[in-house]
Amino acid sequence: MALDAADLGPATSLTCRECGESYELGPRYACEQCFGPLEIAYDFTGVTRASIEAGPRNIWRYRGLLPVPSNVQDTPNTEPGFTRLVRADHLAESLGMQRLWVKDDSGNPTHSFKDRVVAVALAAARELGFKVLACPSTGNLANAVAAAAARAGIRSAVFVPSDLEAQKIITTAVYGGTFVTVRGNYDDVNRLASEIAGEQEDWAFVNVNVRPYYAEGSKTLGYEIAEQLGWRLPDQIVVPVASGSQLTKIDKAFQELIRLGLVEDRPYKVFGAQATGCSPVAAAFKNGHDVVRPVKPDTIAKSLAIGNPADGPYVLDVVRRTGGAVEDVTDAEVVEGIRLLAGTEGIFAETAGGVTVGCLRKLVASGALDPEAETVIINSGDGLKTLDAVAPVARPSAEIAPTLEDFRASGLA
After folding, report:
1. Which one of 23, 200, 201, 320 has the lowest number of neighbouring Cβ atoms within 10 Å?
2. Is 51 helix (H, G, I), strand (E, B) or coil?
């Protein structure tokens, strides 16, 4: 691989999150000393509010804070990011809150936040010499990888559980590429992908062998929230938890902005949200454990159905350090959350968004989350991808003949 020629911007090395061992940049993802996960270390230079604001209205405005080439915006990618931050006054009123925002990532090219992480992984994979973009996925990542590879003109190879939502199957297959359904859950698919990555040296599994680069894409959610709030951090943020990487990277983004003097250094709380049918991190938090015990997922929130979350222990660290919590909700509460967000703010979230809204409601009711503090919640995907979840309860008010008499008789006037 053409590592000597690689330009990964401000990235300087890979560092083990457990023992601190440092490695040269390359296609590594686990520490050779303790098998801990590796993450990117940086030397940020010349990054200011002005330099960011002068950039394109997508995630590449933060290229000086990411492991990507300085000219990354000149190479075909899906150009995700800078999605809207919606002031959610009606939802806030219904929950008895004061200031609430929804960071709506359903506006990305394949309608989920996964476009962010894949864009960064694709840029890094090119620099590291990989030829195929691949992933194990619960659906949204499959969409994003297939689309990004098509846009880049390279091959994709995607592996998903065979019981995935039909909408996510179709919206991945439409982009072409190699698309494999596997008879098993996500954790089975992930193990298979790790084995394949060991044999196919020119395949970049974005969330396996190039995971340190991929994960950094989630930082852009944190950067955008701060910039869209006028270069300040919210008091509280609620983030859905699957692998847990999104939550830990938003926290990393906030810490980087503080360190660079781009936002005021002030306290903030981070909360995690899971579905009860796959809530290993919430269970560990509530029981006071540091170890996250794997579970077998059973929930309609399939995009969060990772029974053995790689970043679970680090989610606990962030939540406890900031004074937050991890909550979970039943599938019925997930559907209620989807309908509440749609009915108050006109935002149709997928099941992960329903989990987040449901958990927000429980956190407010329990007093764990301050209803008077400024709060941001993440909607990570589009409800059109998980129609089956709400189909039984989202029905027309009435069916009538095309006559005024029938309308009057319906009692809907």
Report:
1. 201
2. helix
